[in-house]
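Good day; I would like, with your permission, to put a structural problem before you. What I wish to show you is a protein chain and, alongside it, a tokenised description of its three-dimensional fold. Please examine both parts with care and let me know of anything in them that strikes you as inconsistent. Thank you for your consideration; the sequence and its tokens are set out here:

***
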Amino acid sequence: MIRSKLPNVGTTIFTTMSQLAVQTGALNLSQGFPDFNGPQALLDAVGRHVAAGHNQYSPMTGLLALRQQVAAKVERLYGAKVDADQEVTITPGATEAIFCAIQAVVHAGDEVIVFDPCYDSYEPSVELAGGRCVHVQLSDGDFRIDWQKFSDALSPRTRMVILNSPHNPSGALITREDLDQLAQLIADRDIYLVSDEVYEHLVYDGVRHASVLAHAQLYPRAFVVSSFGKTYHVTGWKTGYVIAPPALSAELRKVHQYVNFCGVTPLQCALADFMAEHPEHIDELPAFYQAKRDLFCGLLEGSRLRFTRTAGTYFQLVDYSHIRPDLNDVDMALWLTREHGVATIPVSVFYQQPIPEQRLVRLCFAKREETLRQAAEKLCAI
């Protein structure tokens, strides 16, 4: 008899909805990946490096040239100086970085505060470390942190807080004032921070991303995670990174070397080249995705869906209570896929305790204009 270490984990809703989209021929606006390719110069660089024989293991911490590019980007964008050798680690995807950060510092019996709705990898990673997640709900509607609720959730067992901004699934942003508030509340406690910032370059309407890297009180206790896949439209490359102070990086690397050891060498080489040659890609990203958001939301204004344009990420939440208030969001997502040919993600799966009256599904707009127009047409016809 197998005694599962993760008895509550089954097939994720993301896999289910993507499979259903394939089976039904629906437009897949469920999982968060583009239906267009990464920059041609980046793709060409991979071929060059493969042909040049850069196909053996990279250093455990990641290719030095890529770590240096990450450090340069961080200084340029956030004014923060990080040491490429001691503070930057390249990982096979951001999810692995989050997992290793949690395993590095969470012990049996420790508590980790997460904000619901939240990304589905956090809790299993905490449970595998012997810890327990304490769920604090973001406010319904604007998905802000209620700092009183957070303060009430703190206990002597609290070992870590996991932040996510821009936020998946809502697109909400944490502000500098939020970070100041957090710093004040945990100042005298032995609490670490994982800041999941994989959508850091997808922030709209002229707003600047508030990174923990730029916060002098929080960074000394933080693991800051980001993703090349999200930034360069190559999610299948599964390449991310984590920045943490030297002592925390050393602990994370102890775990990372036995989980993956290193990422894929030619991909790291190509990313290092592209970052050096095309720093403008990052600067142009907010406008690139904001145009997609505005096109899609503009088209959806002709539908019975209700929404506020997302502040960040490439996700848009929509309220369907004027269409099928009788359906919970999981049934609504199935109905939309089977009956109307658009695959979405129900928001309740991101909660420990879903809000019964909430009627929200998540749409991904990291798609070609043609895909967004087709999807909007189908949704407006309901």
